[in-house]
Amino acid sequence: MKYLQAGKDILHPKVIHFEAKEKDGSAECEIAIQWNTGYAESTHSFANTINTTEGGMHEEGLRKAITNVLNRYARQKGLLKEKEENLTGEDVREGFVGIVSVKLKDPQFEGQTKTKLGNASIRSLVETTVNQHLATWLEEHPGDAKRIVAKGEDRKSTRLNSSHVSES
C-alpha cells in the first residue's frame, strides 16, 4: 500500500486491513484500504494470486459495502442530514486506494483473458467482511472517519453544484 500511496497526502495514517474465511474453508478474502486527498480511485483485485484487472464479483462486493457503510455511518453520526441524498459510490471512492485478494477452491473466471472473477458467492463474503469490519473501524477512529466522509461530501457537493450549473 505504501507504494500505491507514494507522493500522496493520506487522510488517515494507518491502512485499514481485515480478512475473513468461509466456515467451510471454500473461500477467504483479505482487504486493505486507505484514502488520500487526491481525486483518483485505485482498486486492485486478485483471485488466487491472479491479477483480475477487469475486476469481478469480489471488487463489486468491496465497492458496494464501502458505499453502504460510509452512508450508514454518516447518517448515524449526523454528518448526512435526513433530507440529504446519499453519497454515491463515486463520491466515497474519490481518493480511495484498495486491494482485495480472494482465494477460492473453484474460481470461475470470465472471458478468455481470465481477468474477471465470476463467482457470485465471493461478492457476499467480501461485502459481509467489509460491512462488519469497516463499520467497527469507523467507530474506533471517529476523526479519521469524519475526514473520509467529509471527502465524500466535498465530491458530492462539487458534483451537485456542477450539475446545477450545467442545467442553467
Word description of this protein:
- The protein is of the alpha+beta class.
- The protein has helices spanning 57-76, 89-92, 120-140, 142-167, and strands spanning 16-21, 27-35, 42-47, 50-51, 96-104, 109-110, 116-117.
- The strands form two sheets. A five-stranded mixed beta sheet has the order 1-2-5-3-4, with helices on one face.
- Helix 1 packs parallel to helix 3.
- It is globular.
Characterize this entry briefly.
By secondary structure, the protein is of the alpha+beta class. Helices cover 42% and strands 21% of the residues. The longest helix is centred in the C-terminal third of the chain and has 26 residues, at 142-167.
Give the strand order, joined by hyphens, for the main sheet: 1-2-5-3-4
User: What is the percentage of strand-forming residues?
Assistant: 15-25%
Q: How do the SSEs run, as a string of H and E?
A: EEEEHHEEEHH
Number of helices: 4
By helix and strand content, what is the structural category?
alpha+beta
Largest sheet, strands/sense/barrel? 5 strands, mixed
Indicate the percent of residues in helices: 40-55%
| Average pLDDT score | 92
Shape: globular
Number of E-state strands: 7
Terminal-residue CA separation: 43 Å
Rg of Cα set:
17 Å
Residue stretches low in confidence (pLDDT < 50, at least 5 long) are none
